[in-house]
Amino acid sequence: MANVISNEYLGQDMHLLKIEGSFKGEMGQFYMVRAWENYPVLSRPISIHNIEEESITFLYRVVGEGTEILSNLKTSDDVKLEGPYGNGFPKVTGKVALVGGGMGVAPLYLAAKKLKQMESVEKLDVYMGFRDEAILTEEYEEYADELFININGKVTDDLDVDKYDYIFTCGPEVMMESVVNMAKGSNTKVYVSIEKRMACGVGACLVCTCKTQSGNKKTCKDGPVFLGEDVYYA
Ligand SMILES: Cc1cc2nc3c(=O)[nH]c(=O)nc-3n(C[C@H](O)[C@H](O)[C@H](O)COP(=O)(O)OP(=O)(O)OC[C@H]3O[C@@H](n4cnc5c(N)ncnc54)[C@H](O)[C@@H]3O)c2cc1C
Ligand code: FES
Q1: Single pTM value for the model
Q2: Are residues 164 and 109 in the same domain?
Q3: Residue to substitute in 27, 46, 109 for testing ligand 1 pocket (most ligand atoms within 8 angstroms of CB)
């Protein structure tokens, strides 16, 4: 069990949950989170938004029972975290863009922070799309060479894929598929972070199976990050 430091409401049902402790995790990995005893039965997968020496942070949107319980957590309340799980984004070189839509921006903060620390990364641009209002722009701006914000439109409208060696994207399927299609035939490699309903989080139950060019994969263990063309041209 770990203790809640803060659970800040950011607007539009989004919250930033900061938990005390020394946790491990790489960009694109997730934890199975629960703050209840028996019901709901399953813990909920939430991406790592940030890790500091003495804390881990999750950015989440309230969509159902589990996230509703999380939204009511107060300072010092107990949370159970299992992880880090999943493969995470690869370490890359050259020019990199991060493209997030809605809650898909959540894992891209740690990605921006980690990539910025890598000498092999020459340029790091961040694209974020929101339906109503942008959140945490100052925080992402700290690590981005350029930050592009799109409200109520298509975040991909601002994106020239040829400017980048690698693109990491997370968010609505239609947005990720569009990024993969834009890069088709170019030298740009696109990595997508897939969301599937999960039960165990560790590859045991097959609830999260996803089809790829090399057969069915477990999103929780083989992913959630996949090469875009493997998933969308499967
Ligand atoms: C690897 C991974 C990382 C994730 N990271 C984040 C994150 O950083 N922030 C965040 O807000 N959410 C994240 N999610 C989604 C989050 O797990 C779900 O929103 C959460 O489990 C919903 O739980 P609930 O009890 O509130 O809703 P439920 O009552 O279980 O469901 C409510 C609604 O949400 C939909 N839903 C439930 N689970 C998922 C899911 N896994 N993917 C898509 N839709 C779902 C259901 O279809 C239903 O419409 C992630 C999911 C995965 C698989
Ligand atoms: S959630 Fe059980 S195998 Fe992925």
Answers
A1: 0.96
A2: yes
A3: 46
